[in-house]
Amino acid sequence: MKWKKIALVMALGIFLSVPASAQFGKNNVRYNQLDKFYESYRFDVWHNLDTNDPVQKEYLEMVVANLENARDWMSGQEVYGHTIERRIPIWLYKTHTDMESSNIVGGFLPEGVGAFAESEKRRMVLKADFSKPLGRAIGVHELAHEFQFDIRNPGIIDFVVNMKNQRPGWFYEGGAEFIAGLYEPHTRGDIRRDDQKITSSDRHFVPTWEALNRGQVNPYSGGAMAFEFLEEKFNAGVTFQVAGFKQSKIGLGELIYDLTEGELGNPDIDSEKFNQAIIRFWMDKYGDEINNRPKPYERNDNFEGRPVMPWNHSAPMSSPMLAPDGTQLAAFTVLKYGVALVRYEIPKEKVYVSKEEREKLGNGNKAFGPNGSGKLTNLTPQLPPVPWEYLISQGFETWSFNGFDASWSPDGSKIAFFARINRGHALVVVDAKTGKISRKIELPLDQAFSPSFSPDGNWVYFSAAENTARNIWAVYIGDPDTVQVQKITDNKNFATAPSVSPNGTKIVYIDQDDDFQHLFIHYVEEGRQEQLTFGSFNDGWPSWSDDGSTIVYASDEANGIWNLYTLDLATRTISQWTEFPLGAKAPVFARGTLDVVYYVSPGEDTQNGGVYDKIFEAKLKKPIRQYVVQNTGPAGEFVFNPSRDLFQFELDGNQLLNPTEPPEKWSCGGGGISFGASTYWGMFGQSFLGCSNLLETKQHVGLLAFNGNFRFIDYSYQNREKRTGWRWGAHQYQMPYYYLFYDIVERYPNQFLLNNTWFKETALDLTLDYPRNKFNRLELFSRLRHRSFSVFGYKVGELSEADIKADPNFTDADLQMYRFLKTSNGSNWTFGAAYVRDTVLSSSNTWGPFHGNAFRAQVEFAPPIGEEFQSYASVNVAARTYRHLGLNSLFAGRIELMANSRANGDFMLLCGPERGRGCEYGSIAGNQIGYASAELRFPIPGTYLLYQGVRGFLFADAALAKFTDENFPAQEIKTYGVGIQYVIPFIGWPAQSIWTRDNGKWRPSFYVTLPW
User: Fold this and answer.
1) For the segment 552-579, what is each residue's pLDDT rounded down to a tens digit?
2) Can you give the pLDDT at residue 58?
3) Angle between helices 169-183 and 54-75 (to 10 degrees)
4) 956-960: which pairs have CB atoms within 8 A and are 24 or more residues apart?
5) 139 and 204: one domain?
6) In the chain, how many domains are there?
7) pLDDT in tens, 675-708
8) Residues 790 and 864 in one domain
9) Do 884 and 861 lie in a common domain?
10) In a domain, 688, yes or no
């Protein structure tokens, strides 16, 4: 019975109101909703595209046609051999921001997530801000998941019985990537294929059976490698994927044993044969090519290469930018706290410091640096979300589209880049020396990136989308009080990577040519565009020579691998300079030259292991090949797919002309339904029920529980269709008052009268909240409430205060609680408002908060209405701050203030895991509270509790508490001590053991709680 009570009280705690001061949290800002609906043959598409716009209509048509045709193909016997009988819901968002703000996501989604499918609710979520080839490939990948889920679809009994044969993540993601690649392969190798080549560059990186099942490889590219190996060697990749879901009772190792007729053995039992075979396969496929081809640090007839990385820096780098004086590079990299923009001096090619000179320097180690200093300067040391959530850096935070992620102004004083601020990507301009922010410009466009300064430094050109069409734009930054935005191109394709010529008359950029990306040029004065390159390949990252005669860029024209090329604009001659097996990207000419280039290429970390993008220098000597550009017409499609290309699909014009409201499609679920009777409790029962529409913008939630005199009835309706959310609810509670303060360790608070009090509350409430952004919101609320209390079975108003005073069993604390309850007994109609700001970052390294601030200020007012409604006013303020001290330690501070003009039923208990540790739980209470706490939290090296780490903390708590209109002196708490935070083995509950100093002795206490 005890555990039943504990479980019930913990469940009810989810529904009961928490103190206002505890209600922090970030916001999910609803910018747009899926207000349109299209019904294809077998898909229901909720979207927010404007089908009156030809570009958006075409994108919707492409998505529907792609999924319908791919569904036919996947249903065939050559693939899954399975028919999905149901209609599949699709959520198609115009932008990543719209997708991120949906209720299903909840406010934050990395931009690297292009789409996803849900195994339980069986719906697909897509976005329309990709290029068409990438959008098609991602859509087919998610459709493969739908087939996986539909085939697998185990019942509860089957799920439990076959728990040991649950399919790992690589089997889902790698299998979907493999299947999708057969139908709609990626048109660029840097999406997945380059990862596989890097993996194949070292036999120790190739995904073995153990690495796959321990999650040590990329589940997409690494998982697909297992399927490609089985397909090419044994014609069994597709069969392995399908059988793995259809024969779910059989282990994957046994399936491989049967499909390869024992040649690979059963890797679940002995993986040696499988591991040796897959390593040999991938090393044969790419290993020789990687080992025999030139490397970026080598010298040969075509170039002389060397790394130009910052001294003693082992982390990937991208988007190198050359300073106008040619002596420094700026680039994006990963530092201690995440992605950062840095700058550093370009290392000298050859440095020798004689022994005599080294002795004069006094620090011999310094002399061995690449240029005597090698200092790396972090230009963006700020921790998010102020002044930004994250930097826009392709490959680190977003998909790799094209172009450079920052630009150095021609006068050398500024660097411009994009960062996520509020709704989208904002242009940020910083001082190139100090990193001080001079401008932050939020743009009325979507997913802006790839900035490029004009020669006079007054304009920044960039790529951005407007209504799914990506073009080149420019923003004027010459006047700090003016924001002027201009559209430069209007091609309705996917224009990216602008680079402005030194004289400002031309802009070279990348645009879509059917399924491929090529170089285009825009003539500023004439306003016309011209295509520069042609063919069934991709180009990217163009930039200019200082004299404007030549463009250096990367192209995958040769064997689908990005390498360095130049284009002489006068003769239209293209020269290929490198043939690196792992490719080269983002090239820029050295100042005043046509034969020195800085670029990015994967390189081996010989000190720490691994392969990642490094910055190199190449002195160009002799081109590998040259040719003059020929206009060969449209590039065409990457592959011909008869399942896709032989059928013409068009949207239903009648649906577009006569749109219908998106259907709600409600679904309901519940649990814990039980009813009965006993001679002791009388009737008892409980039930939970929740209903939600498919978009999860409308929800009904109800809970019913009763047990003898105990009653808990709670119903609420929440609407999140628009930016301003609202909720109304009604409830009736009748229960012991201590249920609101129940602690799993201490159980009851040290309040004799409170522990023998029942309360009954009936209320109607309405709440509105308006999020200004993810971190700030305004709340408005109103509540009509009646409360009554009974003590020892008597109504609180029927008891005599004289009896309380005369009885020695009652303390002064009980008397104050009695007066408080008696005054709070009755009805009131309240109106209130609260402002909330929460910028707290969390980290697994600190088991919770890491850095940032949280603040909440709330005022509440109940006007006097007749004799029945009591009046009062209250103010609650809560503030927390967290300051990281390295990666694993932090300082945490907290203040709470509570003031009420009269008793209203709201008070605060002190002493316990939440406030005032070390004193007897709940022994101090009041509705006039001042509380402060400070902690220093840190890891304890070498401490483990059943393989779980242990953290330590020092703390100090202080508080003053009293009740309104009481003459008793305020109660005071001052405690300090030490503690450890850990996870209770087997149970998995977070716990704290603390020791407080009390009268010269250390007093232990134990709490089950998370760090606040």
Assistant:
1) 999 999 989 999 999 999 999 999 999 9
2) 94
3) 110
4) 957/915, 957/916, 957/917, 957/918, 957/931, 957/932, 957/933, 958/931, 958/932, 958/933, 959/910, 959/915, 959/916, 959/924, 959/929, 959/930, 959/931, 959/932, 960/929, 960/930, 960/931
5) no
6) 4
7) 554 443 444 556 788 999 999 999 999 999 888 8
8) yes
9) yes
10) no
Do 448 and 418 contact (CB within 8 A), yes or no?
A: yes
Estimate to the nearest angstrom the gap between the alpha carbon of 337 and the chain centroid.
16
Q: Which of 241, 262, 292 is the last residue of a domain?
A: 292
Which residues pair with residue 829 across a beta bridge? 784
Q: Say whether both 495 and 393 belong to one domain.
A: yes
Q: Has residue 669 been placed in a domain?
A: no
* 3 state DSSP class of 418: strand
Whether residue 607 is found in the same domain as residue 596: yes
What stretch of H or E contains 142? Answer: helix 132-152
Total residue length of the chain: 1012
Q: Other C-beta atoms within 10 Å of 647: how many? A: 11
Q: Which of 292, 320, 340 is the last residue of a domain?
A: 292
Task: Give, in order, the Cα–Cα distances in Å from 725 to each of 25, 107, 769.
Answer: 15, 14, 5
Report whether 531 contacts 522 (CB < 8 A): no
Q: How far is CA 822 from the centre of its chain?
A: 49
Please indicate, yes or no, whether residues 374 and 449 belong to a single structural domain of this protein: yes
In 3D, which of 96, 89, 83 has the Cα closest to residue 121?
A: 89
> In whole angstroms, what is the distance from residue 906 CA to residue 874 CA?
10
Q: Closest Cα to residue 932, out of 907, 897, 970?
A: 897
Structure tokens at 965: 């209109």
Q: Which residues, in sequence order, are bridge partners of residue 293?
A: none
Mark whether 281 and 360 lie in a shared domain. no
CA distance 742 to 736: 10
Helix (H, G, I), strand (E, B) or coil at 143: helix
714 falls within a domain:
no
Q: What is the pTM of this model?
A: 0.90
3-state helix, strand, coil in the chain (%, to 5): 20, 40, 40
Which of 749-753, 947-951, 968-972 bottoms out in mean pLDDT, i.e. has the lowest?
A: 947-951
Please check whether residue 102 is in contact with residue 109, taking contact to mean a CB–CB distance below 8 angstroms: no
Tokens of 494: 């996917």
Tell me the residue range of the domain where 258 lies.
156-292
Over the stretch 951-997, which tens digit does the pLDDT of each residue have?
999 999 999 999 998 989 999 999 999 999 999 988 889 999 999 99
- Residue 162: predicted pLDDT: 52
Within a domain: residue 353? yes
Q: Cβ atoms within 10 A of the Cβ of 701, count?
A: 17
| Phi and psi, residue 232, nearest 5° | -75, -35
| Tens digit of each residue's pLDDT (9 = 90 or more) over 635-686 | 877 777 776 666 678 899 999 999 999 999 999 987 665 555 444 344 455 6
Same-domain status, 768 and 804? yes
> Counting Cβ atoms within 10 Å, is residue 104 exposed (0-12), middle (13-18) or buried (19+)?
middle
Strand 88-93, strand 43-47: pairing: parallel
Between CA 931 and CA 924 the distance in angstroms is 12
